[in-house]
């Protein structure tokens, strides 16, 4: 085996003590700082639970129709939602959707500005990229431990873990999308006297939107993938059903809740992708010429 | 009068060691030597020119000659390394960002080689972009954008997307976008370079027509000498970042400054460069009612011509008499002085002074001298058919230089590049 070069115990102890110190001295402040996140999550959850099931189905089917103008996707959405209702998974599905929406919204608010910043400065990009690599490859349990220690088990650490896990693709794709906008078009914008803000919001972001939307799609999918792990620390929802299925060796419970997650994934994936394609079609043809 | 646009001692060097590169340039080192020594690329060196209001100034050069860099320094898209770029006396090479933006919004618009339209907006929204940036309200914006589109013949496509239009139409949108803000100066960076030849010709002709109405100050970049000669009031030929010759089309074709220019000139279409004015002689004529046939014949002998125009008292062309006819008439009548009116031909070729030689072939082949007239039908010059053919074949110039092989190579590269 690799020879013992140093004694790692003091190092580990230092990390542990450091975290304990943060929890003791800053726990309350950090929890207060994260409370808007909790409020956002609760508000979305309450809204979804208070809305009648048929209205939610109608809205989602309507959105699917607007995104594709065909009957296939609305039908798939309709059947998936009916499945959730029939299998007695509606409430859990709403809780999971609320977590996903809250995580995605927060990720958008954080990631798009960082993506914009990365696209404008190579230096920022060089610093942020390895951090994103770390966020994506580090097993999520690793950062669950400190977040749970700081915030206690519950929805805040679940939400934070989901955001950490789901943000990187959006940052990367925002950066990529903005960098790939035709420089000739940007130059034209500048030649007509546009300010940097007019250039960014009038030309660059709209043209990067299909790529940014692909990032949003990735983020929603990754947020959904996180629900089982998040349920271990108190997020509830479909993930909790899966967890119970494992705990009780109840295959059916785990299977149906798992299919419920798949149903949600299909709905949100297909809808966001369809919007991306519409945008791409509008912008893309002329670029191909 | 102050020039609309004035460029003074402008240099552009890309790279880090610009100071060293500048001093090496002063010592007369070449672009390649400087690149090897410093890693800096010389884009433009010592450009000096003025463009007057309403003039089309064409900069012609091959790819890599620095012409695109030069045009981008005229609206500050690329800042010059040194020198001054004055627009109405205001130096845009050295001014604050908001001043530069104001000049771009108010005075200088640009048309791009690859159109650079905004693909997510309709044609009208594209044309309105300059106005949007200036903060013009939406309704007025659309109205003015559509007016600009109508000027370029695209009024009916206002609500199409650029992707639905052909290349030629897309560039019309690019032109309309440039015109919508009613700028005084239009920078055109190889605007027709990406179009196929037929459409290119059409656009060139339309630009000439449009310019008669608009009278913008235009800086036009091209790699096509025929295009330069057709459009330019004055033309600058650029090579390796510097101007090798600046002059009118006629000056450049009839007296190329060096072998490089001569090589270009060798295969241009001379018929489109020169006009009737360039080959016409003085408006020698005899006046009806004053001159006798004898006077006319003597004048022809003196001038060494075989035909002479006859004008009335107001210098309007009445007809043409040939020596042959006069001589025959004199013999027939036996009388010494036939009346000019009886002998003169009233069918004669006539053209305006600015007609291209290309359009004189037909008239010249009739064998009679061609009357050059002004808009009131007054005689201003006479073109001998021989002069037309001599000018077309380049015989009265000295430009039969053999193109050096290096230039040919560069042309091939340019062709592959497009």
From TrEMBL, chain A:
Pfam families: BPD_transp_1. The keyword Cell membrane applies. GO terms for cellular component: ATP-binding cassette (ABC) transporter complex. It is found in: Cell membrane. The chain crosses the membrane at residues 47-67, 73-90, 97-120, 140-166, 223-243, 255-272. Its main location: membrane. GO terms for biological process: choline transport; glycine betaine transport. It is a multi-pass membrane protein. Residues 93-272 form the ABC transmembrane type-1 domain. It comes from the Bacteria. Keywords: Cell membrane, Membrane, Transmembrane, Transmembrane helix, Transport. InterPro entries: MetI-like (IPR000515), MetI-like_sf (IPR035906). CDD domains: TM_PBP2. GO terms for molecular function: amine transmembrane transporter activity; carnitine transmembrane transporter activity. Belongs to the binding-protein-dependent transport system permease family. This is ABC transporter permease. It comes from Pelagibacterium lentulum.
From TrEMBL, chain B:
The keyword Ribosomal protein does not apply. It catalyses: a quaternary ammonium(out) + ATP + H2O = a quaternary ammonium(in) + ADP + phosphate + H(+). Residues 408-418 have a biased composition (Basic and acidic residues). It comes from the Bacteria. GO terms for cellular component: plasma membrane. Residues 279-339 form the CBS domain. Residues 5-265 form the ABC transporter domain. Its EC number is 7.6.2.9. This is Quaternary amine transport ATP-binding protein. The complex is probably composed of two ATP-binding proteins, two transmembrane proteins and a solute-binding protein. The complex is probably composed of two ATP-binding proteins (TmoW), two transmembrane proteins (TmoV) and a solute-binding protein (TmoX). Keywords: Amino-acid transport, ATP-binding, CBS domain, Cell inner membrane, Cell membrane, Membrane, Nucleotide-binding, Transport.
